[in-house]
Design goal:
Layout lengths: L1 H30 L4 H16 L4 E6 L4 E8 L9 E3 L8 E2 L11 H6 L2 E9 L2 E9 L9 H52 L4 H16 L4 E7 L2 E8 L5 H4 L5 H8 L5 E2 L11 H4 L2 E9 L2 E9 L9 H47 L10 E8 L7 E9 L2 E9 L3 H18 L6 H15 L6 E9 L4 E7 L5 E3 L5 E3 L3 E2 L13 E4 L5 E5 L1 H4 L10 H12 L4 H16 L8 E8 L2
Parallel strand pairs: 16-19
Antiparallel strand pairs: 1-2, 1-6, 2-3, 4-5, 5-6, 7-8, 7-11, 9-10, 10-11, 12-22, 13-14, 14-15, 15-16, 16-20, 17-18, 17-21, 21-22
Length: 584
């Protein structure tokens, strides 16, 4: 009996030594690899082979109490990736038969798989995994020694599993960093291409081809917001025939698309009725193209050729790329506008130069009168006009006019007026009849909203008189040598308003030092920085003070007062004046 007991002790010692040797060797094997699958496979196969276990699995945990099936043996591989939540912390190996009722949240899962025992894998007092083993062949229960061995095995394996998990996470982070670096390089390269051109069409093509190449996308649409609203600008991946494009041109669809301010996956979004066309056309992602958080365009892409789903980081990549492209498109638009403004400015400068050439460079000079005219053009081409014409030895015609409106149309109408007047004026002619003919000519050749205020006078140097017609123009001032003054108002309706209008003329005798000042409303309507008009009252103050000055000095004083009043405020109208003084 004693000898039998001694032999049993020796056998147990030998078994313990074998187990220790096995655990030591297993520890070396487990810690020799940082591949999580390799570690888990070795962990599972060792007890299954040693104890003749038919089935088993290992689950790896995360920070949310979720445990995911990582490896299986003797069970369907479809279980891999399945997650269960284990709220109760396992501290030691347990048979499913010993689990309490509150632990039955996950009990059914293991029972359905014929798992007999669960062993926690604990590292730093935290359960990092769970190993489940089925019954041994022959339906023999696990002995206490086998449970101790399994606990020792999971304890040895825990650090290797934890290291492998950390290594796996580091690899994942590194892969993500590599992908981000690749995306940044891609964005940098595409950004250089986008910034290298100021052609909107080329920018959009670069964007589309970059996306289709980077994400292997089957279809790509770019919508851009223009003055008329959101419109389809470019489409790739389908034939550009009308029937295929028609769904993307509907007013309701485009209006709803213009309101998109965040990127979204079509299959995850709650779509309005107008956007239901997106899933119907198998489109997957919608990304707004923004500048300063304002949607200026929208990118819509279809599914991948590989059928893979789009990931969150890819949506971020698309958002950044679209915003870069939108900045380039906006720069291209601004560049086009600048070129157009330069072209218009050149044309206006040319028109302004022509207009200035139509004005007299100098007026006739005699011993009996002095005449001076001035035109200060505004930033635009205008319709102001003045003229002085030597009709014959004893007669001089003066005229001043203001065409309604601004720009090239007004300057063209002014040119027509000048040509018509110069063809009709004659010495000792019928002034009202001439003005009536000009009125009919203007009326017949312009629209109803175009008209001209016009003042025309003929100076008789022998009789010392002035005969004039005022067709709705600002009445010129007649200031006598004694300082008294009146307005020259006789005439009729503005030119171009109605045909066959009668005009009256008045002949006024002139004396030595009498002065006539003609002007356009660009003088009295000149604006100060506070948007106040210069008005007639300020003009009359200058006349009362400076009416004895020469015509040159008088005009210079009015201009100086105007500049002091406006203080550099931009003016929208020409400033035109003409002064006549009788010297004898």
């Amino acid at each position: 009996m004693k000898e039998f007991r001694q032999n049993a002790i020796e056998r147990e010692k030998d078994q313990r030594l074998v187990e220790l040797q096995s655990l030591f060797e297993m520890g070396q094997v487990l810690n020799s690899s940082l591949n999580l699958n390799s570690v888990l496979n070795n962990l599972l196969l060792t007890p299954m082979g040693r104890m003749m276990i038919s089935r088993g699995l290992v689950l790896v945990g995360n920070d949310t109490n979720a445990f995911e099936v990582a490896v299986v043996k003797g069970l369907p591989r479809s279980l891999i990736g399945k997650k269960i939540f284990i709220d109760h912390e396992l501290s030691e190996a347990k048979s499913l038969r010993d689990l309490d009722e509150h632990e039955n949240i996950y009990l059914t899962f293991f029972q359905d798989l014929d798992i007999e025992i669960l062993l926690p894998i604990i590292s730093d007092n935290k359960t990092v995994g769970v190993m489940g083993l089925g019954r041994k062949l022959g339906q023999v229960d696990y002995t206490h020694a086998e449970i101790d061995y399994l606990n020792s095995l999971t304890t040895i394996a825990s650090s290797a599993i934890q290291n492998a998990i950390m290594y796996q996470r580091m690899e994942l982070v590194n892969r993500q960093l590599d992908k981000k670096i690749q995306e940044l390089n891609t964005l940098f390269e595409i950004g250089k291409e986008l910034n290298a051109t100021l052609q909107k069409e080329r920018i959009v093509n670069l964007l589309i081809y970059a996306i289709m190449g980077e994400l292997v996308t089957s279809r790509c649409f770019v919508f851009l917001k223009e003055q008329s609203g959101m419109n389809l600008y470019a489409a790739r991946g389908l034939h550009t025939n009308e029937p295929q494009l028609q769904p993307f041109m509907g007013r309701g669809f485009l209006k709803s698309l213009a309101k998109v301010d965040q990127p979204f996956l079509v299959e995850e979004a709650e779509l309005s009725r107008n956007l239901q066309i997106l899933p119907k056309e198998n489109l997957k992602v919608v990304v707004p193209m923004q500048i300063q958080e304002k949607t200026k365009g929208v990118l819509v892409i279809g599914e991948r050729i590989t059928k893979q789903a789009y990931k969150t980081d890819e949506i971020d990549f698309l958002t950044t790329l679209c915003n870069l492209a939108m900045i380039s498109i906006e720069n291209a638009r601004l560049f086009e506008e600048t070129l157009e403004k330069q072209r218009i400015e050149e044309e206006l400068n040319f028109a302004r130069d022509i207009q200035q050439r139509l004005l007299p460079r100098e007026c006739p000079k005699t011993e009996k009168i002095e005449i001076q005219g001035l035109n200060i053009p505004s930033r635009q081409v205008g319709g102001d006009y003045f003229d002085c014409i030597q009709l014959d030895e004893n007669h001089i015609a003066v005229a001043i006019a203001d065409v309604s409106g601004k720009g090239v149309p007004a300057s063209l109408l002014m040119s027509s007026l000048q040509a018509g007047m110069r063809n009709l004026v004659t010495a000792n002619g019928d002034i009202p009849s001439m003005v009536g003919k000009i009125n009919n000519f203007i009326h017949a050749n312009t629209s109803f909203d175009k008209f001209i205020t016009f003042f025309y006078a003929e100076i008789d140097l022998v009789e010392n008189t002035i005969s004039y017609v005022n067709a709705g123009h600002n009445p010129p001032y007649l200031i006598h040598a004694d300082g008294s003054w009146r307005l020259l108002e006789a005439g009729g309706l503005i030119l171009g308003m109605m045909p066959d209008m009668p005009y009256e003329n008045e002949t006024v005798p002139m004396k030595k030092n009498d002065l006539i000042l003609m002007y356009t409303d660009g003088v009295t309507e000149a604006k100060s920085t506070s948007d106040e008009d210069y008005d007639e009252e300020r003009l009359e103050k200058i006349l009362k003070k400076s009416y004895v000055s020469s015509v040159n000095e008088l005009i210079d004083e009015i201009v100086a007062d105007l500049r002091a009043f406006t203080k550099g405020a931009p003016q929208s109208d020409d400033i035109t004046m003409m002064a006549v003084r009788f010297l004898q």
